[in-house]
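Possible race condition, two jobs.
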Amino acid sequence: MNTKKTWITEIAIAAGLCFCGAAMADVATLAKTCDGCHGADASMPAIAGLSEFYHADQLFFYRDEERPCADATSAGGETTNMCAVAADLSDEEIEEIAAHYAAMPFAPAKQKFDAALAATGQAIHERDCEVCHTEGGSNAADDSSILAGQSMAYMEMTFGQYGAGEREQPDPMKKKIDTLSDDDVKALLHYYASQQ
């Protein structure tokens, strides 16, 4: 047995384990920053449980300033801009953050909703949205976010951005959004909020 070769192999393995541990610590540190707003603040989306592909895509969009990047104030009074947050993230960090959150369960927001509006919203969702946002908008595997259980405040802001053309969207979605009345949007908001 070549003891020199074995020794070098053991050092390489140990170095690899240290590197992985350091990478995990960095992701954990980054995640703590994200957790300060996401999931704890009604105006911010819950991001745990989003698909890895979708989550990474959104962070790339923010980094490249392809999504609206207005300043947002958290419940704790901190002002954040997602383009600024993502600006210095490497491709690897984005992928690691996305993988970290994809491995976590989605936690729907506990919020009030109108049951009659939610029933109307369900019918609208099934007619116009279910093709891409399956299982009532709750299936992360669709790679099109999770709508069911997101906070109503965040969803209202998002519908507003789509309706105003401020946020990129696929052509089929734009056609659907353009046909929705204000009452339709309100009903959809209550339907997604009802899924807790």
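Job #2 (started ~2 s after job #1):
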Amino acid sequence: MVQIRDIDIHHEVAGEGPPLLYIGGTGGDLRVKPNVFDGPLVRHFTVAGYDQRGLGQSSKPDRVATMAEYAADAAGLLDHFGWTSVPVVGVSFGGMVAQELAITRPDLVARLVLCCTSSGGAGSASYPLHELADLAPDVRRRTRLAISDTRHDEAWQRAQPDQAAKLLEQMAAAEAPPGGRDPEAAIGARRQLQARIGHDTWERLPRITAPTLVAAGRYDGIAPVANSEALVSRLPDAELQVFEGGHLFLRQDRSAWPAIVDFLLRGRS
């Protein structure tokens, strides 16, 4: 735990090789396994991951934070480590934070991977997940299942009730917070969803000079491929790779992580 700006941030560092910062997605909590430390990045890099404000074991201030503040938290953590010009991997909400970080602190970002994310603005926003927060649990999960992977839409769920039920059970289990119910965590998660609403880097994307890989899932209904194509069109040095999966293509397509590692290793001197 380290104090960064106005909060205490829980973080973990593991792996071998040069430093890398990983910024996780909506609701991310390092107590939930598997996580980034169970993947291939730690075989090539010394990876730092952390619970963002309002989540996991980090502080949970009851106020709306801007995306710029989430990026300032990430910058503060890198400054704490004394790390400069490192590769940064941002997934979903973490990809939004990573965009802000690369724009506001380009000295910290040597190479950038943006997974299943969006720019907002004219480049289109990711699905408004805050609209699901007050739905009945079953309705919320069925909607989330359909938008997470467009192959699992309502028609598929009706045609494949057993498979749908299994996936919905897995989603329900994933919603159970580590360590039991925590009212502050629920507030923090809602604050994170609220921060997504105002996310818009579109006009500022050309300021990102780091070589960038934009990675998308072909069946992602939360951050559609068109959003990734828009990102690439605005970034000065970017490439797009589309993988066979939805919003969780990093788990669904076995070629995704090797491709990301290959891109990152190209940046080694």
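The chain has a mean pLDDT of 94.
Logs attached separately.
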